[in-house]
Design brief:
It is globular, with a radius of gyration of 21 Å. Helix 4 runs parallel beside helix 6 and helix 8 crosses helix 9. The protein has a seven-stranded mixed sheet with strand order 3-4-9-8-5-6-7, sandwiched between helices. It has a two-stranded antiparallel sheet with strand order 1-2. With 371 residues, it is α/β, with parallel strands linked by helices. It has 20 helices and eleven strands.
Length: 371
């Protein structure tokens, strides 16, 4: 298989996409008082405002998913695009066109996504990339690798009360939930960093680390001199699964099989960095496809998070617990009085139960009727 030439990738990208955000400017933007801070760790900090996803596309230098993308996906796969695409839940991308070109030419690509285990139960927001990845695997019939980043969570969340072994156990529990999504066992490889690190995978980690400077880490992730060194060494580990030769048992020695990464938009800084390094290593740049956040029960201005149990619905919650949480905590878009409701109707843009239906109710006509 001929090696993909990085020069060709760069040329096509600059013709069809805006220039990607310079990763070293992220922290500087925060210092300028940006009220929409999206990163892998703090998530969303918005001063009570709704998330402006168009602004994120411009800020990050990615591209919007257009109707012609959906038409092309339907033509290539022979099936209706997933409702996450039809409703703009997966809303932006990097190099989706190149992945579709690859598939159209009969050449291979693979999927890569992951999970950072911070608790023994996943919540609904954690499911989004896996539900969508399952659709992509079925529609395109391609291999998938799923990374369980138990090391990352230990570096960023670990304290004297929670040791590494606890995050490893969280990862095992989360894998049970991930498997339940129904991935093809013949085409799916799930691994934890603490269990898999070594061999060709670690060789790529080392190569990536050599091409990342301390200034880049400070700019992209806000890491400083008082942080543990694991925070600085980790980003290369999340980057390594982007490259096919990290998995010789799947791809042999091929280093030119491109991947696409379904992810929450908050993970984009990792892969802006990875795409920079890929060019230096003469690997194909990983493509990305980004989802909006699954809203917190408390309101649409923040993603559902495990830090506040009242903001999240867990996969282990019983039907009664779910009903109680929604009735007690779900933000409503309804009028303050019966008269206001009858006169103006509900604001569906901020009504959390209705927004949840846009994620999980597949029937477009039924959704419109409820709306």
């Amino acid at each position: 298989m001929a090696e993909t030439q990085p020069e060709k990738i760069v040329t096509e990208e600059t013709q069809t996409k805006p220039v990607e955000q310079n990763t070293t400017q992220v922290v500087e933007e925060k210092k300028e008082g940006d009220d929409q801070i999206i990163d892998p760790y703090s998530g969303v900090n918005l001063s009570g405002k709704a998330i402006d996803y168009n602004k994120l596309i411009e800020k990050f230098g990615c591209s919007a998913i257009r109707p012609d993308h959906l038409e092309r996906i339907e033509k290539l796969t022979g099936q209706k695009p997933h409702h996450f695409l039809r409703r703009g839940i997966f809303f932006s991308h990097r190099d989706l066109d190149l992945i579709l070109d690859t598939y159209e030419k009969g050449k291979p690509f693979f999927l890569y996504t992951g999970r950072g285990p911070s608790s023994d139960a996943m919540h609904l927001g954690h499911l989004l990339p896996f539900i969508f990845t399952k659709y992509l695997q079925d529609a395109f019939n391609v291999p998938l690798v799923i990374q369980i980043t138990d090391d990352e969570k230990f570096f960023h969340k670990g304290d004297d009360k929670t040791d590494l072994e606890q995050y490893i156990k969280y990862g095992i529990e989360n894998i049970r939930d991930i498997i339940a999504c129904g991935f093809d066992p013949e085409k799916t490889f799930i691994f934890s960093d603490t269990g898999y690190m070594g061999g060709e995978f670690y060789k790529n980690v080392v190569k990536i680390q050599k091409h990342i400077t301390w200034n880049q880490l400070k700019g992209i992730f806000g890491i400083n001199e008082s942080d543990n060194t694991g925070k600085a060494s980790y980003p290369a580990i999340q980057a390594a699964p982007s490259f096919s030769n990290s998995f010789p048992h799947i791809f042999g020695k091929s280093k030119d099989v491109p991947c696409i990464i379904p992810q929450g938009i908050d993970q984009d800084p990792y892969f802006r960095m990875t795409r920079d390094v890929a060019f230096k290593l003469r690997y194909p740049k990983p493509a990305c496809i980004h989802s909006k956040f699954f809203p917190s029960l408390l309101g649409i201005n923040a993603k559902m998070g495990a830090s506040d149990p009242n903001s999240a619905i867990y996969l282990t919650d019983t039907p009664k617990q779910i009903e109680k949480k929604i009735n007690a905590h779900a933000f409503s878009g309804g009028g303050k009085t019966k008269e206001e409701q009858e006169k103006y109707g509900a604001n569906l843009d901020v009504d959390v139960p209705y927004q949840y239906l846009t994620f999980f109710l597949e029937d477009d006509e039924k959704l419109a009727e409820i709306g």
